[in-house]
Design goal:
It is a single chain. Helix content is about 60%, strand content about 5%. By secondary structure, the chain is mostly helical. A three-stranded antiparallel beta sheet has the order 3-4-5. Strands 1-2 form a two-stranded antiparallel sheet. The longest helix is centred in the first third of the chain and has 50 residues. The chain is elongated, with a radius of gyration of 33 Å. About 0% of the residues have low confidence.
Length: about 750
């Protein structure tokens, strides 16, 4: 900053601008409140139909969010400008004070242009006649001290001005259209974030082998501190650069670097997560720099990086392991995935796998390492989709022109078709891992969970209290999944892909209301939307037979059978809660809810019995144990969390613990749902000393009796203390109707209504 620019600077114009921004911020705050409390609130409550159900509602939701972002951005700009102005005025005061003191000491301070200045002692006019020979007004020590003081003031003023300018530029560039959600309480906070990003980038500029564990710890600590900071993330990513980011992680991740230093390996594991999270945050910026950064990362994908570390990996191999963590830009993930799968199709086959082979010892993943060394980049990418739901829904989107129901292969997304039916998957385990487990298929299931539910596959029970996130887009993915796994090849697909069993159960559970709706009619006629209303706009449509086929396949597997059964039961109980036996309409709804559960349970249970018999053949003991384990679905209700119109159900899945989500017919838990959950918590505690999943053994007849027991208990509970309603139900043959629904659909007399059990060729 020039000396005269600060000395004579008129900050009144900047003050006027700040006043304008302050007023704008207040107005935007009012608009934000109005948009959220009026515009969006009314849109959420409205019963939309047709195009309005999808396009208009989504537009209003995004518009309301833009008002919030506009207020946030205006507030940040106001605070940065205000702080900078105050600082510059203070520096101007300090400068004028220093110059005033210089004048008193006969010292001149002159602006020499281009950011330079001169400080010199004044020449005495009587110097020639001074007997001492002293020709200066002051000594050089005083001149130097004053020069240093003024330089310090100008340096701080320059830093204040330039850091504010940089922060403002980064801030407004975050969003090319609309506004950024980046929020800063003052200029110093924004400036420090940028400075710390530059500092951390210098560590990545080093050779990974020269980076100490102390530096890694500092890097991890700082990245974790700024994990949600948009300016830090962008500055860090762009300062490091795409290729250096990849080569640095490959060097740190190289197992030969971490083997002999446990602390370094510990820091490397955290760095994978922290780097991935930071990069993800950076991709949310729309700045030109980040757009170029993303394009370069994708361009580097198929090529080896030309390094000695980690078996000289490709860009895909490294980046896919970093993106296992973080919230990434949806379009970036889709562009990356399009290119990755296009390349993967060229190299994937029955021969030696390009990614997983004995030559490739580039272990780039520290998380779940025993069963997933991270050599297959498709796995890491699918993990990214698993915690980026909107990107996943977009990646697996239903093709344009599909009818109301998916009923042919041409209506299946190419990515989904390739990953479920065409790709050759290879296990990527260590010697200590389970070589029958394919991490990539498990990650595919997690990606599809996110795509169909709208929630991250890592979501905890409490996260689901935000409510139902299904949309027409998520339903479009679900329809494809039901078609694939409920199709003729469905039993084989599920058998060959056991890692997906828990995910498929979760997906079906999340759409159990739509499945019940499909079962409520006579074939595809007379479906009852009054009993099973759409919980969201653009509900999934499977067709009556499609729903039956899908359930019949999921029933074959112990895990998927248990998850769907638990979701079905909770949904039915919530329907009973929402329709107490008071009035004909309520009672009719309850009747249809129990009938739908009976039919769905019949399909699931019959499939389970038949598959156990087919799998174990003459080994009745193992078949019975398998059926016994399948009765334990009821314990999945332990720890269920209800709220926002959904139930979050913890359960032991095929690849570890998970959470299933089921829609319920009320915002919160009613008496039936609460009693069910409470009873299961008590039973779970009582049986804590034994493992009934191993001890259970029963015949198919006993298994069906268990099914009757669950439905019958619901029936009795509903009519408890309502004898008149119970008498009416008895007169209307409810019990016979429910039994027929359970046995008539699920018995061997009607095998043709679902898919046959999987049988080895």
């Amino acid at each position: 900053m020039d000396l005269d620019a600060l000395r004579y600077g008129n900050f009144s114009k900047l003050g006027e601008a700040i006043t304008d921004w302050e007023q704008m911020t207040k107005k935007l705050a009012d608009l934000q409140r109005d948009a959220e409390g009026n515009l969006k609130a009314k849109a959420d409550k409205a019963k939309w139909a047709g195009v309005n159900a999808t396009v208009s509602r989504e537009f209003i939701t995004k518009t309301a969010a833009e008002f919030a972002d506009a207020h946030t951005q205006a507030n940040s700009i106001t605070k940065i400008l205000s702080d900078t102005r105050s600082e510059l005025i203070e520096y101007r005061t300090q400068l004028n004070d220093a110059i005033s003191r210089a004048t008193q000491q006969n010292i001149s301070v002159i602006d020499t242009g281009d950011g330079t200045f001169a400080v010199m002692g004044n020449t005495r006019p009587d110097w020639a006649s001074d007997p001492s020979g002293n020709t200066g007004a002051t000594d050089q020590k005083a001149v130097k001290a004053l020069r240093d003081e003024i330089q310090g003031i100008l340096t701080k003023a320059t830093q204040s001005d330039s850091s504010a300018a940089k922060a403002l530029m980064l801030l407004v560039d975050q969003a090319k259209y609309g506004f950024s959600e980046a929020s800063y309480k003052d200029r110093d906070t924004a400036a420090k974030a940028i400075a710390d990003a530059d500092k951390m980038a210098k560590i990545l500029a080093k050779n990974p082998r020269d980076v100490t564990s102390t530096e890694l710890a500092s890097l991890n600590s700082t990245l974790a501190q700024y994990k949600n900071d948009p300016l830090f993330a962008e500055q860090f990513a762009t300062q490091v650069g795409p290729k250096k980011m990849l080569t640095f992680w490959a060097g740190i991740a190289d197992p030969f670097q971490g083997t002999y230093d446990p602390e370094r390996a510990k820091q490397a594991k955290q760095l994978q997560k922290n780097l991935g999270t930071t990069i993800g945050r950076a991709t949310l910026s729309d700045s030109d720099k980040m757009q170029s950064w993303e394009k370069e990362i994708i361009k580097l994908g198929p090529d080896q990086l030309g390094i000695d570390d980690a078996s000289n990996p490709t860009g895909y191999a490294v980046m896919s392991n970093l993106m296992r963590f973080g919230d990434y830009d949806d379009q970036f993930l889709n562009d990356y995935g399009d290119k990755l799968l296009a390349y993967d199709k060229k190299v994937n086959g029955e021969g030696i796998n390009l990614w997983v082979n004995n030559v490739n010892q580039g272990d780039l993943n520290y998380w779940g390492y025993k069963n997933d060394r991270g050599r297959d980049p498709v796995t890491g990418f699918l993990e990214a989709l698993g915690h980026n739901p909107e990107a996943s829904s977009q990646f697996f989107a239903q093709p344009a022109g599909t009818g109301d129901t998916v009923n042919k292969d041409s209506e299946i997304n190419d990515h989904l078709k390739y990953l479920t039916k065409e790709r050759v998957w290879v296990s990527d385990t260590t010697l200590e891992g389970d070589d029958s487990f394919v991490a990539g298929r498990n990650s595919l299931g997690r990606a599809l969970e996110a795509a169909t539910t709208g929630y991250s596959a890592d979501a905890a029970p409490r996260d689901f209290l935000a409510g139902d996130r299904r949309t027409a887009s998520t339903a479009g993915v679900m329809e494809q999944v039901a078609y694939l796994y409920g199709g003729q090849d469905g039993p084989k697909l599920l058998h060959d892909q056991p890692e997906l069993s828990d995910s498929l159960g979760k997906m079906a559970g999340a759409y159990i209301d739509d499945i019940n709706y499909e079962l409520s009619g006579i074939g595809d006629h007379g479906k009852d939307e009054g009993d099973f209303p759409a919980g969201y706009a653009g509900r999934a449509q499977f067709g009556n037979q499609g729903a039956i086929n899908f359930l019949s396949v999921l029933g074959q597997n112990e895990t998927s059978h248990g998850v769907v059964t638990s979701a079905q039961h909770l949904y039915t109980l919530s329907m009973l809660d929402a329709n107490p036996p008071a009035g004909d309409t309520n009672i009719d709804h309850a009747r249809d809810a129990l009938a739908a559960e009976a039919e769905a349970r019949g399909i699931l249970d019959n499939a389970r019995v038949q598959q156990a018999e087919t799998t174990y053949g003459a080994n009745a003991e193992d078949a019975n144990k398998s059926l016994g384990r399948s009765t334990e679905w009821i314990k999945f209700g332990v720890g269920a969390v209800i709220g926002g119109g959904v139930a979050a159900i913890p359960f032991p899945g095929a690849a570890g613990a998970g959470v299933a989500i089921a829609p319920i017919a009320a915002e919160t838990a009613g008496e039936f749902v609460s009693t069910f959950i409470g009873q299961q918590v008590d039973k779970g505690a009582d049986g804590a000393q034994q493992d009934p999943r191993e001890q259970a053994q029963m015949t198919s007849a006993d298994f069906y009796d268990k099914g009757f027991e669950a439905i019958g208990t619901s029936y009795d509970t509903y009519f408890k203390d309502h004898s008149t309603a119970a008498k009416m139900a008895d007169e209307q043959n409810w019990k016979e109707e429910i039994k027929a629904g359970y046995l008539g659909t699920g018995s061997h007399q009607n095998d043709y209504r679902g898919r046959p059990s999987y049988k080895e060729d």
